[in-house]
Design a protein that fits this description.
Layout (H helix, E strand, L loop, with lengths): L1 H24 L2 H12 L3 E6 L5 H7 L5 E5 L11 E4 L7 H10 L5 E4 H9 L9 H6 L4 H4 L1 H36 L5 E7 L5 E7 L23 H8 L7 H6 L4 E3 L6 H8 L14 E3 L1 H5 L6 H17 L2 H16 L5
Parallel strand pairs: 1-2, 1-3, 3-4, 7-8
Antiparallel strand pairs: 5-6
Helix pairs in contact: 8-9
EC number: 2.7.8.-
Protein name: Sugar transferase
Membrane topology: Multi-pass membrane protein
Length: 338
């Protein structure tokens, strides 16, 4: 009996150690997403694509709550179902005709990427392709000049209003930065903006003056180069306030994809599809990625943020900008995001 108890205890300890090792070895964000996936109800999703794209779709959707069915043609199974197509131009004629016919039987048909956008509020960038961009007309900020005019008006009105609060806070921040460590108050750094044009982003200095003596480095959550004052102003986003100057100059918007450095863009575009598409719009002080995804500086984090950035570019509107600004206020007040 004792041997059985000891054996069971040993097995339990081994399993517990393996689970602990797995938790420590994986990104916490991935674990959260996995838990959500496990507890979400699995939906039947009927996918129509060429045989060569099946493996890609299965891999991209592996963590989604779907039971996938490919190229089903039995109409009796499709009534009231959601049918999604991928690269419709590559579908055989009979499948394309069947999708049109399926709508008459009560099926709901739409592009796979659009369906995922609507369900999950982000764009699966691995499923994007050149044909998608050429035929997609829902990029409202790109196709409608009126949207750009309204967005610029919102930027100017909001920047003027924020300046009333930002100026006194900025003066105090400048004083404590100067008192704490030697070096300039402001930090200027070349970032890539609209249409791949570089500009100098302006921030309050939050790191030591020699922070990049060994070259460009990714910032990390508990970066040792950050000063004590810098830690506070980064957490509260006070370090971003000088970027209102960039907004007034027309180099940035209040809301948009965060601008990145060219040295990191070259690294990221090698592994993230259409990474430079973010430069089709002005970069922002805050963005959908910043209020939807926790702080992170890994390649995986950049992939997830890019999903939200592409979604934002596709669906930008005045109401979405206002929503992001309100969520940013919540993020700052509760110290989330950094």
């Amino acid at each position: 009996m004792d041997n059985k108890i000891n054996s069971s205890a040993a097995l339990w300890n081994a399993a517990n150690e393996k689970l602990t090792e797995k938790i420590h070895s994986q990104d916490i964000g991935h674990l959260i997403r996995e838990l959500k996936r496990v507890h979400m109800k699995s939906d039947e999703l009927y996918v129509y694509c060429s045989d060569s794209d099946k493996a890609l779709i299965e891999r991209v959707l592996v963590d989604y709550p779907f039971t996938l069915h490919f190229n089903v043609t039995d109409m009796s199974q499709l009534k009231g179902k959601t049918l999604v197509h991928y690269k419709s131009g590559d579908l055989p004629d009979e499948l394309a005709a069947m999708l049109v016919l399926a709508t008459k039987y009560g099926a709901y048909v739409e592009p796979l990427v659009s369906y995922l956008d609507r369900r999950f509020g982000r764009t699966e960038v691995e499923l994007l392709h050149s044909g998608y961009f050429l035929h997609m007309k829902s990029f409202s900020i790109l196709s409608r000049p009126s949207n750009r005019i309204v967005k610029r008006a919102l930027d100017l009105v909001s920047a003027i209003t924020l300046s009333l609060v930002a100026i006194p806070i900025g003066l105090l921040a400048a004083l404590v930065i100067k008192l704490e460590s030697p070096g300039p108050i402001f930090y200027r750094q070349a970032r890539v903006g609209l249409f791949n044009q570089e500009f100098d982003v302006i921030k309050f200095r939050s790191m030591r003056n020699d922070a990049e003596k060994n070259g460009a480095q990714w910032a990390s959550k508990n970066d040792a180069r950050v000063t004590r004052v810098g830690r506070f102003i980064r957490k509260t986003r006070i370090d971003e306030l000088p970027q209102l100057i960039n907004v007034f100059k027309g180099e940035m918007s209040l809301v948009g994809p965060r601008p990145e450095r060219e040295v990191f863009i070259k690294e990221l575009e090698a592994v993230i599809p259409y990474y430079r598409f973010r430069h089709a719009v002005k970069p922002g002080i805050t963005g959908l990625a910043q209020v939807s995804y926790p702080y992170g500086a890994s390649i995986e984090d950049a992939v997830w943020k890019h999903k939200y950035d592409i979604f934002y570019i596709k669906h930008q509107s005045l109401m979405l900008d206002i929503k992001i600004l309100l969520l940013t206020v919540k993020t700052v007040l509760f110290g989330m995001g950094r």
